[in-house]
Design goal:
With 486 residues, the protein is an alpha+beta fold. It is 29% helix and 27% strand. Strands 9, 11, 13, 15, 16, 18, 19, 20 and 21 form a 9-stranded antiparallel β-sheet that branches.
Length: 486
Amino acid sequence: MDISCLQPTPVWRHFSNLCQIPHASGQEAALREAIVVWARARGLGVKVDDTGNLVLKKAATPGYENRPGVVLQGHLDMVCQKNGDSAHDFARDPIHAVERDGWVTAGDTTLGADNGIGVALALAALESGAMPHPALEALFTVDEEAGMHGALAARPDTVDGRLLLNLDTEEWGELYIGCAGSVDVMLEAPLPTEPGPAGFAPFSVRLSGLAGGHSGIDIHRGRGNAIKLLGEFLHELGAKDVDFRLAAFAGGTAHNAIAREAEATLLLAPGRVELAAQAGRYADTRRLLLPAEDAGVRLEVAPLAIVPASVLSAADTRRVLALVHEMPYGVRAMSAEMAGVVETSNNVGELRLAGGRLHLNAMVRSLREAGVRNLAAEILYLLNAKGFDHPRVAGAGPVWTPDRTSKLLALAQKVYRDAFGGEATVQVIHAGLECGVFAALWPEMEMISFGPTIQGAHSPGERVDVASVERAWTLLMGILAAIPPA
C-alpha cells in the first residue's frame, strides 16, 4: 500500500514526502527548503536561524486569539543505519517505506519515523482548517541525533509560544514530563604500529546478526553490543595465550545506537589454533545469554589474502582489548522514583582502530545530573588508567526535570481520558529530548511530550504502528482545541 493513503491521510502524506528527501544529521538543508516552499505557498510565517532551525507560524483561528500560543516541536534529522548488505545511500536515496500488518517500516534501513512522524503531525496541524487552535508555531530543529546542536543554538526569542508539545517520544499512551541528560565520552589516540611478525597469518573476525536499537529507550532490554562482544571474544583469546596482533577494528556507526556489527583484522601466530571453532563456541554461548531478538548473532572467521602492512604491538593489542572488555555498557542503575525506568546507563557507540589511530565514542545517560557526571568520570578514569591521554567529554544534553503540577499535563490527561476512555501513563524517558534544552532556555514554558508507538528506532527494521499515529493525531487536535483562555 502507498503509505500516503493511510489514515490520517494528511499526516501520512507529509511523512511520505519526507521519506523522499534524504535528511541525515547535518544534511537537513534540502528537506528544510522543501518545507519552506510548502509553508510559503500556504501563507505561513517562515523563519530560519543561523544554525538552520526552522520556525513556521500560523495565526489563531477566530475566537482563540486570547489563548496562549502553542509550539509544536520536532527535529528534521534522522539516524541513518542499514544492514551490512544494503546498498542504500542515505545521502542520495529515498527511504522505501511500506505498510505491513499495521506497521510502516523500511526493512533493511532505518525508517526515520524518529522524528519524521512528529514533523508530519506538526505539518498536518498547520495545514488543517477543520480544528480550532491558538496561535501555532512549529519549531523544527537540526542535528538533534548528533548532539542536539540545533536546540542548543536556539535563542530566547526563537519562539513566542507559552506551551510546548514535543512530538518525539515513541510509546503511545504515555505522556512524558522528563528525560535523561547525557554526555559523550570521546577518545582520539595515536598508537604506534609495527610490521607484523614473520609467519603470522591474516584473518578477519566479524560479529553480526544483532538487533541493535536506541541506546536510551532500548538499553534496558539487555541487547548485545557488537563492539563489546567482539572485544570480549578477542580479549578471551589473549587470556588463553593465543598469540595475535590487532591491525584494525571497526564497530558501531552512531553514539546513540547500540552497535549491531563489528569486525577486526588480526595477524595470528602459526600453530594449531582452531580460531573458527572457538568463534563458533563463543557465539553459541553468547546466544544463550542474549535476548531472543539477538538469536541471529554470528561470529565468522575468514582468512585474508592480503597481509596488513602494520599492526599494534602485542602490548598495545592487549591494552586496547582490555579497554573494550572493561568499558561499562548497559544499565548502571534503575530509578528509585519511577518504577521500571532506567536511571543511568552507558552505550559504547563507536570504536575504530585504523592506521595507528584509535577512535572511541561512548554515550552516558542519566536522569540525574550527578549520575551523568559520575559515570563519565569513571570512564575517563578507565581511559587514563589504560594509558590513553586526553579523552574528552562533549555534547552535554541537560536533564528535563519532571513537573507533575503542570496545567498542560492535566489538560492532556483530560483530553486523553475523554477521547480514549482510559488514563494516560505519566512517564519520564531514559533518552534525550530537546525539552531538556528548552526547559533551561524557557523556564516559564510548560511542556509535555507524546507520540505514536515506534519500535526499533536507530536500527534497521524501525517501524511505526499505524493505529497509534491516528490516536496521536486525535490527541494533538484535541489538546489544541481545548487550550483555555490565558
